[in-house]
C-alpha cells in the first residue's frame, strides 16, 4: 500500500470526521510531500521518522516566524503512527520494521494552569465584540477546545434531548449537556446561519463578504479578534486555551470530583486531568486549617474550665 493510498483511505474513513479535520488534511498532505506519494507505507523505518522529525523541527510559524513547538512536531509523528496502526489493524498491512514511536516523540513542556481572575473577566467582557460574545460565553460555560467551539454545527445541537453530540479531539465522541445557561447562549443564535452556530457580522464589503451580513467564524478570524480583545482588556499571559483551564479549575473547586472534570473535558486519560489536582490540595489545606483551629479553640476552653 502506498502512502498516497493509505492517506486517502485514512481521510475517508477517519480523518474527515475529526474535530480538527483541516489540520488532519494538511498534515496528511505534508507527509505525502515529504515521503512521496508512491512510497510504500511499510518501507518507512525508524530512521525515516527521525529524519522527518528533524525536517519538521526546522519549520516556523507563519504569523510570528518562530520555530514550531515540540507538540506540533509530535502531532505530525502521531498522525503517521495512526496511519500505521490503521493499516495494521484494519487493512491487514504487514510491517517488518515498524518504528519505535516513543523514541521519536519530543519532550513537551508541562502545560501550566492559568485561572481567569474576576477583574480580568470583567475587563474582557467590557472589551468584547457583540457578535463574538456568544462564542466566548460558550467556551467559558463548557470548557470546550477552540476548534470544538467555532466549528459547532446546528446539526449537532439537539434541543429535545438537551445535548450537543459531536466528534472531539482524536475523533472521540463528546457530549455537552445543554444546561439552562447554554440554552440562553445558543437559542438567540437560531436563524443567523443555516449550518454554523457561531457567526460574526462583516464590518466591510470585501473578499466576497458584504457589510452587515453574517458569516461563520473562522480560526483566523477568532484568533485576530481574541488578540484585539485581550489587548483592549489589558489581560496578559492568558491564551484562548486558558479558558479551558479556567473552566476545569472552577468546576473541580465546586465539585471536588476529578473524574467528573475528566468527563467534562473529554480527557481520554485522567492523568491529563490530574494537572488540576492542586485545587484539591488547596481544599485539603483549608480543611486541615479548620480542624487545627477547632482543636486549638477546644484546648483553650478546657484550660479555662480547669
3D architecture notes:
This protein has 306 residues and is mainly alpha-helical. It folds into two domains: 3-104; 118-239, hpI Integrase, Chain A (Orthogonal Bundle). The chain has helices spanning 3-13, 21-35, 46-57, 70-89, 118-127, 133-142, 146-150, 180-186, 219-233, 242-255, 258-265, 270-273, 278-305, and strands at residues 157-158, 163-167, 173-177, 199-201, 214-216. The strands form two sheets. Strands 1-2-3 form a three-stranded antiparallel beta sheet, with no helix packed on it. The protein has a two-stranded antiparallel ribbon with strand order 4-5. Helix 10 runs antiparallel to helix 11 (258-265). The termini are far apart.
What are the SSEs and their pairings?
Blueprint: H1 3-13, H2 21-35, H3 46-57, H4 70-89, H5 118-127, H6 133-142, H7 146-150, E1 157-158, E2 163-167, E3 173-177, H8 180-186, E4 199-201, E5 214-216, H9 219-233, H10 242-255, H11 258-265, H12 270-273, H13 278-305
Antiparallel strand pairs: 1-2, 2-3, 4-5
Helix pairs in contact: 1-2, 3-4, 5-9, 6-8, 6-10, 10-11
CATH topology of the largest domain: hpI Integrase, Chain A
End-to-end Cα distance: 88 Å
If helices are DSSP runs of H or I spanning 4 or more residues, what is the number of helices? 13
Q: What can be said about the biggest beta sheet? A: 3 strands, antiparallel
Number of individual domains: 2
Task: List the strand order in the largest sheet.
Answer: 1-2-3
From the helix content, strand content and strand pairing, which structural class follows?
mainly alpha
Low-pLDDT segments, ≥5 res: none
What is the tally of beta strands? 5
**Mean pLDDT, all residues:** 90
CATH architecture designation of the largest domain = Orthogonal Bundle
Order of helices and strands: HHHHHHHEEEHEEHHHHH
Strand percentage lies at: 5-15%
Instruction: Evaluate the radius of gyration.
Output: 24 Å
Amino acid at each position: 500500500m502506498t502512502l498516497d493510498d493509505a492517506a486517502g483511505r485514512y481521510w475517508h474513513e477517519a480523518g474527515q470526521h475529526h474535530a480538527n479535520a483541516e489540520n488532519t488534511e494538511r498534515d496528511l498532505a505534508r507527509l505525502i510531500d515529504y515521503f512521496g506519494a508512491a512510497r510504500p507505507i511499510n518501507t518507512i523505518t525508524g530512521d525515516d521518522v527521525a529524519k522527518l522529525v528533524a525536517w519538521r523541527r526546522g519549520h516556523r510559524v507563519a504569523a510570528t516566524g518562530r520555530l514550531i513547538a515540540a507538540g506540533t512536531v509530535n502531532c505530525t509523528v502521531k498522525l503517521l503512527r495512526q496511519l500505521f496502526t490503521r493499516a495494521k489493524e484494519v487493512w491487514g498491512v504487514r510491517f517488518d520494521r515498524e518504528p519505535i514511536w516513543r523514541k521519536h516523540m519530543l519532550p513537551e513542556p508541562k502545560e501550566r494552569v492559568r485561572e481567569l481572575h474576576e477583574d480580568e473577566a470583567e475587563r474582557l467582557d467590557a472589551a468584547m465584540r457583540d457578535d463574538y460574545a456568544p462564542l466566548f460565553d460558550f467556551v467559558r460555560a463548557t470548557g470546550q477546545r477552540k476548534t470544538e467551539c467555532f466549528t459547532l454545527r446546528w446539526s449537532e445541537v439537539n434541543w429535545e434531548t438537551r445535548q450537543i453530540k459531536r466528534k472531539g479531539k482524536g475523533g472521540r465522541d463528546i457530549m455537552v449537556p445543554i444546561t439552562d445557561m447554554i440554552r440562553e447562549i445558543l437559542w438567540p443564535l437560531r436563524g443567523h446561519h443555516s449550518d454554523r452556530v457561531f457567526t460574526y457580522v462583516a464590518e466591510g464589503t470585501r473578499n466576497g463578504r458584504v457589510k452587515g451580513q453574517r458569516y461563520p467564524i473562522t480560526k483566523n478570524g477568532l484568533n485576530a479578534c481574541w488578540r484585539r480583545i485581550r489587548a483592549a482588556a489589558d489581560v496578559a499571559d492568558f491564551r484562548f486555551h486558558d479558558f479551558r483551564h479556567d473552566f476545569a479549575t472552577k468546576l473541580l473547586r465546586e465539585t471536588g470530583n476529578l473524574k467528573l472534570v475528566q468527563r467534562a473535558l473529554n480527557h481520554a486519560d485522567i492523568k491529563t486531568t490530574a494537572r488540576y489536582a492542586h485545587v484539591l490540595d488547596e481544599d485539603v489545606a483549608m480543611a486541615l486549617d479548620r480542624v487545627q483551629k477547632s482543636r486549638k479553640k477546644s484546648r483553650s476552653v478546657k484550660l479555662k474550665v480547669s
